[in-house]
């Protein structure tokens, strides 16, 4: 789709990983790696105001972005629209444009509707950058980036040799969609997906993936597992009969993990339902990269904010 | 009431625009204009702690004050008393005095009771400054100041030549009261008010204003329109029959706006009920100053905080 | 239990005052006294992130810690778990370890379960420090420290000459337990406790204390009164018949206070139920140290955070 040599347009917003050029994706990972190893520059975004604008609550994601922004010296404001009594029927577009008029230059936006963050970005003024912190089932690009960074740290930069298995509710998961976009862009050797049929999307999301409903078989020889969170709503909707059944068929246990490559790594976007998607033994075991993902998340978000709002990004 | 030459007492709190001397009002506008044009001084309030103390929620106003305080280098704390489970029957006065004892020197206070902010100010210690961020129907002085700054930018400093029309629920509006105080202090040439009789105050609020219930007539030749927000409670209280009726009689449309002077400007304190007080075409049109008001709001609040809490205010 | 000459292990967490060595307790008070008199060092914790993690809401305590951390230059994050919709069944341990993985080094934790903060501390990584901001009925060590600092300022460092009276709901009070630990460590001359039998603990909490149910008698000659807050739940639980009865029997009035030593001081952890534990006249009178306690609270929390997270603490 693009070559490493093409001249890249500067990134204005980060809305999706779907059409992010490979060179830009790699540049973000490289910069994030610098920031994992070293220190952020507290002057990078000094005097720049950034607002988290969460129409759907998520303290964990908000904290990660807030820490990233603080380490770059930005002023951070939080607007938790989901619990605000002040929205008073104002449109999301007016909320954004109002806070933008106050001088805020960066927005971290989460919403439960597909495409809503891109729609807001279209309404933003020329100096304003938006980061999609999760919209509906569509995208969660910084999660995709942090997953790729974690995978690259563990397995090296050549993704063509990797067999990656995604387990769980791909149908409702923006994490899975962002991971799939990034894995394709980075040329992952094989992408497998394993889930109950009720949790698999019917559209083109899984194009090119090997789909299975048998976890033991799907695990055979994989280098990396990306476990997805099971939302409790799936039980209420009748898509999953019970947590016990789900765990029996799709839960990752230490014995099951032995089907994978011996040095396979296990990832999960959190928060984990312990004993459902994954047992304690696996979650806290040596192959788990769960906390490493969280750590990388702050560095990835710093890299994104620097790239969108800072001057030219400094070398390591 | 005062001359430009009199020596002004330093401003201790900002509680109302009613008795604010003209010279002090103009000094605040002048300083805010500097801050719109230039940069704030991040050392101005370094090490000074400011707390927003909102007994009535308002994220938009809180964010504006928070940004203003951050740009002056202050430490900002938020206490949203309206959603706090910790008030536990403590009096507002004890809440204030407790946070004051922690070393907080500035309080931004909003409450739904008339006069409550002034009552709190009377309880504050000698080094403490309060800013009224809206109390009941009485006052919202920083909104009044930002409206005057916006008007002055658009129409020049000589208010005696201006015909200003305020449209809507003056009866329940602290914004209108603060605007009226400031317009009188600045010597506005003519102040008209247009609203349904049920939304007009019976007291002295409108002294000197030309009151009308016919928007087309009231618009004739005005230089500036200040549209007020219609709270949905007015319908429940039976003061307005329906949003549709209100819009038909008192909503500002592009065709109606042609009755005003050709260069008339349109203001609204936000958040706008689009299609009620004002159509999209007008809200987003070339005569609308709505986003300019928001931008000026931060500068006005910086000027107020600097004046109350900083050392001598620096020239532009 | 320890001598002033022993070499102290550096303090890793502050979980309880029960086993805190006397020399360490005094070092914290000494450092807090420096900070009351002078300025904090805004570089002391620069670049260090601290998170308030409140499983039980308390705005007042959160603000005090937040101010303390800001004055030391730390980045402060607030996670009010009690109102968060995002906890989603995650264990407290996973919440802590996740935020820790983001690079947060200090946690201020409040929870309504006894021992829960110590349990979390056991799960924390080697570079992480926890401060117990109140757990169940067990401990509230920074409140104990600020009470001791306040007492020392008023009465001098020799506690052996002091008669201290604690009045009220010791049974349910973590404040009382932390005060009792500290008073014993500092060698208070006499500790009296006065409360209705229903509000007294049956365990070893009151070992060595003189217990009474007659406030007038208990007041005789005391140098310091520590009034405890009466939670309204006690009425619902039938432990107290009514606020009026409680006030009649255990409320501190100006006339009752005359039974104490003429220079006796009155303390209360706040928020005060005026007219219940204490009358307005006493709360706002010359013997009340209530606001001084609040002021000292910030300094004590600065001293604790510096000691746990900073380099070697500077002399005054």
Question: Characteristics of this structure?
Answer:
Aspartate carbamoyltransferase (chains A, B, C); pyrimidine biosynthesis (chains A, B, C); alpha/beta; 5-stranded parallel beta sheet; 9 strands; Asp_carbamoyltransf (chains A, B, C); homotrimer; aspartate carbamoyltransferase activity (chains A, B, C); 316 residues; Asp/Orn_carbamoylTrfase (chains A, B, C); 4-stranded parallel beta sheet
Please give a structural write-up.
Three copies of one chain form a homotrimer. With 316 residues, the first copy, chain A, is of the alpha/beta class. Helix content of chain A is 38%, strand content 15%. Chain A has twelve helices and nine strands. Chain A has a five-stranded parallel sheet with strand order 7-6-5-8-9. In chain A, strands 2-1-3-4 form a four-stranded parallel sheet, sandwiched between helices. In chain A, helix 6 links the parallel strand 5 and strand 6. In chain A, helix 1 packs across helix 5, helix 2 packs across helix 12 and helix 5 crosses helix 6. The longest helix of chain A has 20 residues. Chain A is globular and about 55 Å long. The two termini of chain A are 28 Å apart. The model of chain A has no long low-confidence stretch (mean pLDDT 94). Chains in contact: A-B, A-C, B-C. Chains A and C meet through helix 2 and helix 12 of A and strand 2 and helix 3 of C.
């Amino acid at each position: 789709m693009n070559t490493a040599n093409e001249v890249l347009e500067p990134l204005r917003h980060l809305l999706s990983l779907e059409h992010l050029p490979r060179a830009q994706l790699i540049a973000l990972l490289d910069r994030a790696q610098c920031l994992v190893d070293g220190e952020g520059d507290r002057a990078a975004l000094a005097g720049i105001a950034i607002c988290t604008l969460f129409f759907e609550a998520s303290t964990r994601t908000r904290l990660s972005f807030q820490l990233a922004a603080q380490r770059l010296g930005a002023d951070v404001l939080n607007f938790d629209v989901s619990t605000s009594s002040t929205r008073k029927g104002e449109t999301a577009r007016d909320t954004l444009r109002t806070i933008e008029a106050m001088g805020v230059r960066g927005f971290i936006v989460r919403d439960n509707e597909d495409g809503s963050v891109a729609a807001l970005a279209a309404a933003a003024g020329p100096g304003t950058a938006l980061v999609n912190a999760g919209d509906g089932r569509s995208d969660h690009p910084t999660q995709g980036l942090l997953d790729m960074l974690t995978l690259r740290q563990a397995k090296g930069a050549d993704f063509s040799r990797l067999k990656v298995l995604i387990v769980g509710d791909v149908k409702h998961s923006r994490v899975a969609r962002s991971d799939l976009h990034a894995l394709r862009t980075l040329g992952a050797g094989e992408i497998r997906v394993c889930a109950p049929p009720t949790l698999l999307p019917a559209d083109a999301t899984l194009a090119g993936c090997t789909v299975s409903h048998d976890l033991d078989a799907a695990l055979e020889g994989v280098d990396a597992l990306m476990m997805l969170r099971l939302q409790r709503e799936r039980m209420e909707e009748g898509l999953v009969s019970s947590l016990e059944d789900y765990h029996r068929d799709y839960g990752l246990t230490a014995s099951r993990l032995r089907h994978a490559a011996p040095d396979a790594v296990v990832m999960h976007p959190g928060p984990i339902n312990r004993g459902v998607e994954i047992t304690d033994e696996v979650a806290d075991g040596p192959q788990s990269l769960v906390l490493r993902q969280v750590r990388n998340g702050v560095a990835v978000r710093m890299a994104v904010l620097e790239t969108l709002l800072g001057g030219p990004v400094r070398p390591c």
